[in-house]
Design brief:
- The chain is of the alpha/beta class.
- It folds into 2 domains: 213 residues, Rossmann fold (3-Layer(aba) Sandwich), CATH 3.40.50; 91 residues, Rossmann fold (3-Layer(aba) Sandwich), CATH 3.40.50.1100.
- It has 14 helices and 10 strands.
- The strands form 2 sheets. A 6-stranded mixed beta sheet has the order 1-2-10-7-8-9, with helices on both faces. A 4-stranded parallel beta sheet has the order 5-4-3-6, with helices on both faces.
- Helix 1 crosses helix 8 and helix 3 packs across helix 8.
- The longest helix has 16 residues.
Amino acid sequence: MGNWQDIDRQSIVETRSRIDHMIHWTPMLRSSAINKLAGCQVFFKCENFQKVGAFKARGAANAVLKLSDSDRKNGVATHSSGNHAAALARAAAEAGIPAYIVMPANAPEIKKQAVKEYGGEIFECAPNLQAREERLKELVARYKAAFIPPYDHPDVIEGQATCAYEIFEEGLSLDVLMAPVGGGGLLSGTALASHYNAPGTAVIGAEPEGADDAKRSFVAGKRIPMESPDTIADGLLTSLGLINFEIISKYVTDILTVNDTEIIAAMRLIYERMKIVIEPSCAVPLAALLKNKSHFQGKEVGIILSGGNVDLTRLPFK
């Protein structure tokens, strides 16, 4: 594992090449109806079409591919409520090594099923960070597996940075690029990619009010862990990582928050207007844009649609 300060434009280019055989170059979509409603031009980067249905495929693939042979031989382990779990299980399967995954008992069933389908072995725990970390510690000791955190890891962040890198490779000149923030892997990677490839683009994070530790940490200038998060955006329940906070503090312009009602409305809008499947966490940046339309009037705004792993029997609208 390197240092996040070693991530630069060249390393992101090399990472994109390294993981090429394991991920999709995802498309950019637009909606004239959403543009009209938002009062700006919105470009959606569709990571809901990514392998495992989420951007997490990028960071997991990079972290596994950068392991030494000796670190790789005993497999990998992590704790995750969903998308990173599936992404790591898949990356491990591609590398021919086992994956030991700690998941909270209340993780969405669709995400547990994905981990199993990719060959990962699930170990359930109570739905809190302490229980997750204690269970993980047991597994690492038992199997001598390499721990690949879901977001607080330079190789994971470097992998997530390739998402924004692809946007800029398309030749888009964006005024703003928005991404959701939970643990901060995607937002910190997006911020680094933007800094090195499009320094004139403002990077803005979007977060649920019921899990707003990144916003509070950003404002306070110190990391404030989340306690008892409560939001429909299940992919954004985790507290902001240490490394991620450092990067976000340095390179992110602002973090906007929205409530669950606003998230659900934005999610429904994407389903109705764009005819694509997204999970609630995915809708948070669009909800933030629509809530703060005056900030974005007439601008060109990129939004990363982070994932599409949602239980279709439990959609929050009818």
